[in-house]
Structures are given as C-alpha cells and as structure tokens.
Amino acid sequence: MMTRCRKIFSAIARKKTVDNKRLLETGLKRQLNVPDVLGIGFGGSIGLGIYVLITYVARQVAGPAVVLSALIAAVTAALSALCFTEFSLRLPRAGSAYFYSYATIGEFCGFIVGWTMILEHSIGVAIATKVWSQYLGHLTNNSLPRLMNESFHWSDGQYFDQSPDLIAVVVLIISTITLLIGTKVSTVINCVLCILGGVIVFCIICVGFFHVNHDNWTGEEDFFRFGIQGILAGASILIYPFLAVDAIANTSEEQKNPLRNFPVLFTIVVSLTVISMVSVSVALTLMSPSHFFSDIAGVAMAFEDRHIQGARYVFSVGALIFLFATTTSLLFTIPRLLYSLSRDGLLPDFLGDLTLKDRIPVKAILLSFCLSLVLILSCKLCLLLSMLGTGTLLTFFLVSLCVLSLRYQQNNIGMIQEYEDPNEEECITEFSYPSYDNKHFQADQDDMLSYKDSPRIGRPRDSTYKKLNSIVSMTSVGSESTLFPLSMTDVIEPSPTSWLISAICIVVYVISSIVISLMVIFGWKFIYKGSWWAIFLLIVILGTMAVSAFILCKQPQNRSKLLYKTPGVPILPLLSLTFNIFLLTSLPLNAFMRFITWLLIGAVIYFSFGIHKSREQIPDEQEVVLYEVNDSS
Fold this sequence. Notes:
61% of the residues lie in helices and 3% in strands. By secondary structure, the chain is mainly α.
C-alpha cells in the first residue's frame, strides 16, 4: 500500500522535462505579428469587461464602488502580468500557465491549471455569445427573443433558459468557422473588429462624462452600500478581462518574434484594459444610478435612460462588434490549451492533430466548440457570471508562486543567459529560432532577434552563430534582492538549506494572507469597532507576514541572467499572492462549489488517463537486454 502511494505521489509530482535547445521549435505555424496578437488580447479583455461585467458588478455586487473594484482588479492583474512576462520568455510555449506550473510545481498541479483555464475560457465564450444575443434582441425591440420563446419553449426558466439561445449558437458557429479557415484570417478579422469597437468605447467614455451627475456618488445612493466585501467580490469578477495575458501567452508558438514582443504586448494590453475599464466604470456610475442598470443590454440601456438619441443603435452595434471579437479570442485560446495537454500525453493524442497546410488544431477547435455549446444550452447567464473569476485568480496566484519558487532554487528552468567565457569582453549578438515550414524546421531571417544596440552585448571574437538557444551576458554577484542586499560574507548561491527556509517563509506568508483576508472580509466589523482580540490578531498576523517576507528577502536568489526578470522579487510577487488570495476568499461559496465539481471531473480524467499516458512517465517495468561482450583478443 505504501509503495503504491509513493508511486502515485511521485507521478503527480513529476515535473515537465524542459529541453532548452528545443523550446522554440513548434509544430504550429509562426505567422502572427504584434497587431494580430493585440487583436486577440483586446478582444478577450475589453468586450466582456465593458459590455457585461461593469454593469453587472455595479448593479448586484459593488454599487458605485465598482470603480474601486476595477482599480483593485487592475493592480492585481498588473502584478500578475509582471510574473507572466518572465515566464513567457523563460518558457515560450503554448499552454501558458499550464506549462509553467507543470515545469515548476508538478504534473497534477499543471493539469489542474490547464483544466481550470479550459473551463474559464469556455465560460467566457458562453457569456459573450449570450450577451451578443441580448444586444441583438435589444436592437430588434425584443422581437427575436420573443419569437424564440414562442417557437422553442422548453423550460419554465428556473434552472435553464426558457428556450435554447439559438442566436448565441449561430454566433459560436460563425466564430468557429473563422478559426477553421485560418489563424491569420481570424486574427486579422479580430484586429479590425477591435479597432472599430475601440472607437465606440471611446464614445461611451466621452458621452458618459458629458452627462455626469455627482449625486450618483454622493447623494441618496451610498457609494459603499455593499461594503468592503462587495468591493472585493466585484474585483474578483472584474479580474476576468485581464485573463487576456493568458490568451497572449498562448500565442507563443505562433508569433514570429515572441521573445521581443511579449513585454510590449503585455504592457499595451494591460494598460489599455485598465484605462478602458476604469474610465467606463466612472462614466457609467456618474451618469446613472447603479441600481438602475438593466440586466439586459446594460450599457445601451443606461444611455437610453438619459434620453440620448441614437444610443440604442450605436452602443448596441459596438457591443455586437466587441463581443464577437471576444468570442473569437477566447475560442482561439482553448484549442491551444487542449493541444498542449495532448502533446504532453495528459489528454488523448487526437487533440494534438494539426492540418498539413496551416498547422491548425482542428479537432481541438471542434472540441472547444462542443464545450462552449454545452454551456450555452445548459446554463443561464446569471449562473455563468457567478462562476467567473475563480480560475483566473487561481492561475495568477500559481504563476506568482512559480516565480518565487524558481528564484530561490538552484535549478534553472527555461531560457536563460549563460556565460560563454568570463574573460570575453564581448558576448553573443543575436540569435534566431526555428519556424515550421514544409515539415522541416528552418531559421527564418525575418524572425531574427537582434541585440546589437545593447551596451552590454556584442559579438564574440572569432565566433559565428546562426542558431543559438540562449543569450550570453555578464551578471553581478550577490543576492538579487535590492531591498535587503547580502553582505559579501553571506552565501550568494541558493542551497538546499536556503531553499528550505525560503519555502517555509512562502508557505507561512500564504497561510497568513489567507487568515488576514478572511478576517478583513468576515470580521471587518470587529476590527472597525476596535475589539481588542481582533486588533491583537490582526497585528500578530501582519507581523508574521512582515517577518516571513524579511527573512525571504535575506535568502540568496538564483543569479542566472534571464531575458526578463520580474522586478522587486520577492516583494512584488508576494503582493501579487496577497491580492489574489484576498479576491479568491471574497468569491461566493457557490462559485467554489461549481469550480470544485469541474476539478473533480478533471481529477477523474487525470487519474484514469493522464497519469498513465504522460510523456514524463517512466515505466515501472522495462525490458532490459544485457549483451555479453567477449574480448576476442
């Protein structure tokens, strides 16, 4: 029994073997440039955030304080995006957070992350198509929904929609067809739609600020009427649009130049998403009382209530444009997750099949269509909205945890900059990576990354390189912590002992963060009233967090030079962990119950299939043939 348990634990804890020399090889086709990926990022973020989530959170969760919810979500996403940037350059592979967790923590954790993200993106697709149907019905004075209810009535509406949302199904079919036509075609369409939709979002902000009524914040409607718990619960929902960073990271194997583009892409998408979300939330809540927001076509109705001519048509069309882009962006990401899981043997091999010409995972796209279709037909919109956020926050939490974990370990994972010769004054100038063409990997001149302008990187003497797998650069000695630098007498390299101390500090910090978040959310009244035991417990927990963070800062960090390093380690990743924990604990219990149900389904699939078919599996019984070598002499 003990032997079997050890084998199972060894299997679920095994890590992905990363071959740095082949990290940039891919079976997919490298064809996406910066505008293509920006279209995927904006499509997956702004559409749902502006046309669905802001009015929903303002009406039912946070009230006018949705503005603060958006700001908290923005800070959490920005901290997590810094960690995503490091990993996207360490491990530029499809699968994103799944692959990062697999290589850093273990196989089962990686599978759970991938399985979670499949559900999270599928929920987004279902919500986007259902709301698309609502806005179309609003344009037609609800004639289409009425016709559907009369023709295909199948429920009383308590647990399911009164009729199947066939309009949402049609939108899903069209979006799937665009992906099947070709990756480049779908991304170009998405980019054009995002430009058009961005213009209308700008109009929403401008028109909203022209109709400001400050009484909506300071009058009869209490700005904080849902309290701090409502603000945090709203932030846990508004974090979903920032899942665009995961969608961008999943394009790693299809970008022409991922190592150069990722920092720029993450910065642009997160920045513009923050500006759009905060600006629209301020404009809408100042223009109209939050409890007046409609649960159908909320943005368009808010402007109609102020008797703004043309609002029904302009803003409804804007919603249709952006929500279709959202559907395509999220549906683009799910097959890449399925493809990555299949490639590692954790899901059936057929999901990794690619077309010969365009290298598209057709079967994975069709399965993504089926998953989204089931959610559209079986779940009401309110149920889908209540399930948002859990997977996103869990992913952000684990990516931040992975950054901390790797920084205090001796081992290096992924692409790093290595020394060529300590005596060399100049280092490697440029490197290229392979792209897939006619079933052979070739180095494309257009895909060359150049570092000629860097003052620290030059061409090595008497050396010629065409294809390299790491960049050579000089690095300073000592701890990477700039807050509490180590003295020269301290250990400057991580050791098993220092890693054990670091791991204990991280665990203590995480547990303390969970406790303090529960205190703030559920025991805020006692803290506010000054109860001695609440104040004492709060001080003890904050002190524990501060001490563990200080000790962690004093531990030696891995000094390997990376293509990008998350700044402020360990402080910024620790803050990211804290923010994500606060938002996770603010989610309603029913959201966790549904999420756990999905995880149990995933666990059944993993233990019945993935654990046995994993590419990392080492057979217990291997046939070993020994040959006797006779010395003929």
